């Protein structure tokens, strides 16, 4: 794997020597770096334990999900993993985003109706920082696992039908 020698990498691509197996480490490292950069909000302190919890669970799930999908596809004889992964991942992402949005809207409406009926908004307000961060972390974990599961299921169907 080249870290800074772009010319050598370009040579591999030009000469068709960059296989899916050789490209996988680049994909994993880039995914982890993007995840870390996206996990750090503008005013975040690296001393905050929950940022590290988010980063570490994100790294673990990213490594697990990418390896799971890569192995599922290539061990079943699939070729051109990255082209197919990006296409399937795009559609799964959009569908997942729409489903999460719909579930959130329905959940907010139901939550508001229940609280309004009980007239107890203050008792349900998540003022506690720990509760908010844990809720966000748990929902991120569930969504990430669901994303990789759906991509994996689709990759299995694609490779079996080829």
Features:
162 residues; flat
Structural overview:
With 162 residues, the protein is mainly α. The protein is 81% helix and 0% strand. It has six helices and no strands. The protein has helices spanning 6-14, 20-39, 49-75, 81-118, 121-124, 129-161. The longest helix has 38 residues, at 81-118.
Average per-residue pLDDT, rounded, comes to 84
Q: Sum up the overall morphology in one term.
A: flat
Question: Could you list the spans in which at least 5 consecutive residues all have pLDDT below 50?
Answer: none
The N- and C-terminal alpha carbons lie at a distance of 31 Å
Q: What is the compact description of this entry?
A:
The chain has helices at residues 6-14, 20-39, 49-75, 81-118, 121-124, 129-161.
Topology:
Layout lengths: L5 H9 L5 H20 L9 H27 L5 H38 L2 H4 L4 H33 L1
């Amino acid at each position: 794997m080249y870290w800074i020698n772009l010319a050598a990498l370009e040579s591999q691509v030009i000469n068709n020597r960059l296989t899916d197996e050789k490209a996988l480490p680049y994909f994993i490292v880039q995914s982890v770096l993007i995840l870390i950069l996206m996990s750090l909000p503008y005013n975040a302190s690296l001393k905050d334990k929950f940022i590290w919890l988010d980063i570490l669970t994100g790294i673990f799930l990213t490594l697990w999900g990418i390896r799971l999908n890569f192995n599922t596809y290539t061990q079943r004889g699939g070729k051109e993993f990255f082209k197919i992964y990006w296409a399937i991942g795009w559609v799964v992402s959009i569908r997942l985003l729409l489903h999460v949005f719909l579930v959130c809207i329905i959940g907010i409406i139901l939550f508001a109706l229940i609280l309004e009926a009980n007239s107890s908004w203050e008792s349900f307000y998540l003022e506690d920082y720990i509760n908010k961060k844990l809720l966000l972390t748990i929902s991120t974990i569930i969504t990430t696992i669901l994303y990789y599961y759906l991509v994996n299921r689709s990759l299995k169907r694609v490779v079996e039908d080829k």
